[in-house]
Specification:
GO molecular function: hydrolase activity
Number of strands: 40
Helix content: 25-40%
CATH class of the largest domain: Alpha Beta
Keywords: Hydrolase, Signal
CATH architecture of the largest domain: Alpha-Beta Barrel
Largest sheet: 8 strands, parallel, barrel
Structural class: alpha/beta
Shape: globular
CATH superfamily of the largest domain: Glycosidases
Protein name: Glycosyl hydrolase
CATH topology of the largest domain: TIM Barrel
Pfam families: Glyco_hydro_106
Strand content: 15-25%
Number of domains: 4
Distance between the termini: 63 Å
InterPro entries: Galactose-bd-like_sf (IPR008979), Ulvan_degrading_GH (IPR053161)
Length: about 850
């Protein structure tokens, strides 16, 4: 009955939302969006128009409004959150965004997590504790982080439906007046610290588990669980908390937003619940790519100051939790907070951004949100207003000039990704019960965070082991929870189908220790009916709850006995017999995401390692003609598949390979690759009014420290080529560039080099026997901010956290070493 009620509410809310939609076609979701922080909500109509017009020109599809703390000196412009003045600026933003064809999302509050002045102690986050062995409850005392003026206050109790009802009531008047292009209402990652209690806890626990938690305070007070029974009690507690979160916040959040006529967007990570179920409840599940990942790409840089011990290394499996939930429930969009803390302020190169995007795409994301783009008034001098935790994607960024090219690349890729469903063959069960049974102790709450904490619940687990192994062997796999298992539809051909149209050939259960009787009986039923369910390493070892009756225990043992013949130590042979496709390109270091298309299949393929440059690859879902499209350069080549396809893909590059009916070109085989190193002469570099003669390319920032803060330099040289060299010089390559470059040959603008590998196609007829080449190199702004801090220029003038570095220490660039800027090494040409 409960499930029927939730489904009824779900479809009713979808009907309301669909009926009140204005014009969803006014903006693009294929183009990237960005978090748009409003410091102090001190926005003006002039500033809003200036910001939005710049974002539009750079190729953004939309912005996500998040009011935060303000900048000192602008207090007279502060607008209290949701005040008449704030609402006037908000509706002006909607008007301008619609004029420009931009979409707008908004956080349901200011800063994060949800809370503010409407939350009293009754609705605020709560905790249990033991003082001198006596159980007591109290407020956590946590207030909204990074709150904007008028948004300050206590954090909401996310386990209390009445608390959310009161909180949401605050937004009803605004949303009733809101209109397109406002699209989605957003909830940030769950960062409620210490909240482990709600007044409904004990009665809910009794209903769900069949016994009274209050009789086990001796267990809850222990610093560490010491027995199987104690771990079971703690797991029952965690499961109850998860149920309360889902029932009293996650589902009401989605349903209420839909009832107001808008889309819900939710970050599940950090929650004390099964992330798959929380992602699945939102219209747009949102993952996160936080921090630096040391991609094995020649020339790729990782900020040595990034603390991977504390913040972890971004993992594709965390992204796939969100995309799997979307695939299983038919959600068209999967978003991701992207490039958060990619490197220290003023040091991030745009060449670091593209591999991050490619990793995000492989993880199943098709709706990128840059983190982020701070609103900055046009009259504020560089570096303008900035947010402390982001990579800067606003017009003050040193790589802003390359943003149109980056954004066009994203649009090209996301157009394909959004148009076609993901083609996964296998399902891998996520054993949430094992997480709840591990490392328990007093006050402990298992929050599934994406930073270093993910080692505990994701990476260093059986699920982590098998998900990585299957991924590395080229299997396309989606992850599934206990609740999502019950939505699967069995087909006569012994496959598992989803209501959204996905068709899976096998269900794999990693070495789970704890499984509920309901899940185990369901799996046993499927096995009895002949469906492909297999357990990796061993069968589940224990029933998951301390409250199980004798009958439940017997049922569990009977179900387990029925599964004895379904254990695999290595699933490869069985997967092959079931026709589960494996793409051998993964063993060559290539990463991919496979999509179903009307013509057959499409692959997004990216090279994020240095193992492959060119060679033959297998494409299991393409049977005939195919097209290879470079979404960065918009160039295409074609092939006719035999057993394998030929691919040229240098580290850092990516392509889309798709089935096509007919090849438009007779040329199927690329010429052999020819590399020609050339020797420039009369080499000079000019920085402002200074000109330096060089014998070889060298970083201009180290020629003279007095010019190190210059944002750019022009390298000029002459180049003599033979007729054969001209005929084969199709692509210009630079070996070492900091950080991007504009190329001019014989007075003609050729284009910009900004991504790895550093190369640029040369239009036919450009090169001559004698050539004048000019390469304007634009560097990052680290040296510029270094000089400003050395001179004591006041620019870090924000309230609250003000401005911190990548290790969350007060930002001070005055003692930084000079950053490399310019180009060094060699230049060469290739024929393709």
């Amino acid at each position: 009955m409960k499930r029927f009620f939730l489904l009824l509410l779900f479809f009713a809310s979808r009907f309301i939302a669909a009926g009140s939609s204005d014009d969803p076609a006014v903006f693009s979701t294929a183009k990237p969006w960005a978090y748009w922080w409003w410091p102090g909500s001190a926005v003006t109509e002039k500033g809003i128009t200036h910001n939005l017009e710049n974002f539009k020109k750079a190729g953004f599809g939309g912005l996500h409004i998040i009011p935060i703390y303000g900048a000192k000196g602008s207090e007279s412009l502060f607008q209290n959150y949701l005040s008449p003045g704030w609402q006037a600026k908000f509706f002006f933003t909607l008007k301008e965004a619609k004029r420009l064809g931009l979409g707008i999302d908004m956080t349901m509050g200011t800063g994060w997590p949800l809370g503010g002045p409407s939350i009293t102690e009754k609705e605020a986050a709560k905790k249990y504790q033991f003082k001198a062995g006596v159980f007591s409850t109290d407020l956590t005392g946590q207030k909204v982080k990074r709150a904007a003026p008028g948004g300050e206050g206590l954090v909401m109790d996310h386990f209390d439906m009445k608390a959310f009802a009161k909180y949401s009531h605050t937004f009803a008047p605004l949303l009733k007046k809101a209109h397109s292009p406002l699209r989605a209402i957003y909830n940030d990652s769950y960062e409620v610290y210490g909240g482990n209690y709600t007044p409904e806890l004990f009665p809910a626990f009794q209903r769900l588990n069949g016994y009274d938690l209050r009789k086990h305070f001796d267990v809850l007070s222990k610093k560490k669980a010491e027995s199987e029974e104690e771990n079971q009690i703690f797991a029952d507690y965690h499961r109850t908390i998860s149920t309360l979160l889902q029932r009293n916040f996650v589902l009401p959040f989605d349903h209420w937003i839909n009832s107001m006529g808008f889309t819900s967007r939710n970050q599940a990570h950090g929650s004390p619940g099964n992330l798959l179920d929380i992602y699945a409840a939102a219209d747009i599940p949102e993952a996160e790519f936080f921090g630096s990942k040391p991609f094995d790409i020649p020339g790729y840089r990782v900020d040595p100051e990034y603390d991977s011990t504390t913040f972890g290394i971004p993992d594709i499996r965390a992204l796939k939790l969100a995309s799997s939930a979307a695939n299983l429930t038919g959600k068209k969009l999967v978003s991701a907070e992207t490039a958060t803390w990619l490197g220290n302020h003023f040091k991030v190169s745009i060449a670091q951004v593209k591999p991050v995007l490619d990793q995000v795409f492989v993880g199943g994301v098709n709706h990128v949100f840059f983190h982020g783009a701070t609103y900055s008034p046009p009259e504020i001098a560089w570096p303008g207003w900035l947010f402390y935790a982001s990579t800067n994607f606003n017009p003050q960024s040193h790589f802003w000039e390359a943003m149109p090219a980056l954004n066009k690349y994203i649009e090209n890729v996301q157009t394909m990704l959004q148009a076609n469903p993901t083609d996964s063959d296998a399902l891998l069960y996520f054993p949430m019960e094992d997480v709840w049974h591990e490392n328990n102790g007093s006050g402990k709450l298992h929050t599934l965070e994406l930073h270093a904490n993910s080692r505990v619940w994701l990476k260093n687990t059986s699920f982590g082991k098998w998900s990585e192994l299957l991924q590395n062997k080229g299997f396309s796999v989606d992850y599934i929870s206990d609740d999502l298992l019950t939505d699967l539809v069995l087909t006569p051909t012994k496959t598992f189908k989803t209501k959204s149209g996905g068709n899976y050939k096998v269900l794999l259960i990693p070495a789970a220790h704890y499984v509920s009787v309901e899940t185990l009986e369901l799996l046993a039923k499927w096995v009895k009916q002949g469906y492909p369910v297999y357990f990796l390493e061993h069968l589940p070892l224990h029933l998951n709850t301390n409250g199980a009756t004798k009958e439940a225990k017997e049922r569990w043992e009977n179900a387990r006995h029925a599964l004895l013949m379904r254990v695999l130590s290595d699933p490869a042979d069985q997967l092959a017999r079931l026709g589960v496709s494996t793409e051998s390109m993964s063993t060559k270091g290539l990463s991919f995401l496979r999509k179903k298309t009307p013509a057959g299949a499409a692959y997004f393929v990216t090279n994020l390692q240095s193992k492959f440059s060119e060679g033959s690859i297998s494409l299991k879902k393409i049977a005939g003609n195919y097209e290879v499209w470079d979404p960065l350069t918009d160039t295409k080549s074609y092939g006719k598949k035999g057993s394998e396809a030929w691919l040229s893909l240098a580290p850092g590059q990516s392509v889309i390979i798709k089935s096509i009916a007919k090849i438009p070109s007779a040329s199927l085989i690329a010429a052999a690759k020819i590399t020609m190193e050339v020797a420039p002469h009369n080499l000079q570099v000019s920085v402002g009014s200074r000109v330096f003669d060089l014998s070889d390319f060298a970083y201009y920032t180290h020629l003279d420290t007095s010019i190190a803060d210059s944002p750019s330099a022009r390298y000029r040289f002459n180049l003599n080529l033979t007729a054969d060299q001209i005929a084969n010089a199709k692509v210009l390559h630079l070996t070492d560039l900091r950080d991007m470059a504009k190329v001019r040959i014989n007075g003609k603008e050729i284009g910009m080099i900004w991504s790895l590998p550093f190369q640029l196609a040369i239009p036919s007829g450009t090169l001559q026997e004698q050539n004048q080449i000019e390469i304007e190199v634009i560097s990052n702004s680290a040296n510029r901010i270094r000089k400003m801090d050395q001179q004591g220029v006041v620019w870090k003038n924000f309230y609250e956290i003000n401005f911190v570095d990548i290790r969350y220490k007060p930002f001070d660039a005055s003692k930084w070493a000079i950053e490399d800027g310019g180009m060094k090494g060699k230049i060469y040409f290739t024929n393709r």
